[in-house]
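Collaborator request, handled under Task 6.
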Amino acid sequence: MSAINNYEKAYLPSRMTAVRIANGYLQERIYNGSNQRIIFEHGIHVFNVAKIAENIARKTGSLNPDTAYILGLLHDIGRIKDETVTHVPHSLEGYNYLRKIGFPDVAPICITHNFIDPDIKAEDYPTYDTKSFETARNFLQKVRYNDYDRLVQLADLFSRGKEILSIRQRLDKNKQFYHIKNLSYEDKAFGLRDYFNQKYNLDVEQIVADTFNMQKQTHKTDDRAVFLIIRQPTLVKEQRRSIV
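Structure tokens returned to the collaborator:
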């Protein structure tokens, strides 16, 4: 029988502790010689995912924004080690790491955030060797996602490095980066957005746009191709005029 991750009744770190854990693993990567620019941009990603998850949770009226923020901060904790060196996917590394430091109830988010569709296909995850893929698949067969798992998956889709992207743009960049022509979970990624929009009567993309002072721009012929465009803050324009 599948178990449901119950993060609201779990033992979670406080927001401040979660921030310290997140900052700590980023600093450790730099200390161990990782490229500072890459780690800096990944740090932006982690905190952006946390902000997106928090703001969507608040708009639902039922999900806990603090819980969402904490899970967002810790979802990528497995990047404490460079998976290109260890050859251990960050999802599994993070799961083991959070259990090791005393937060086993939070650990599932490290794995679930990485798989929108729990019925995973090996071709979608070329960085997973056979052993890692089987470990992840066996884990996913034993759990059922709740809305926090889905929320962090969704928030993660809008953020890549320091960029805020539409889901369409993020999926296309994933395919380009991993040299994959098609992703089997592509429709489910958009279905995740639609799930939150319909269940909680939201406009998820507008929430993301508002979070970062951006404009939502919908493609005329494809409702899945929504772009988020940076808008120049009014304050910056006023400062420039005063300098002149």
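The cover message to the collaborator said: "The radius of gyration is 18 Å. The CA atoms of residues 218 and 226 lie 5 Å apart. Please let us know whether this matches your experimental observations."
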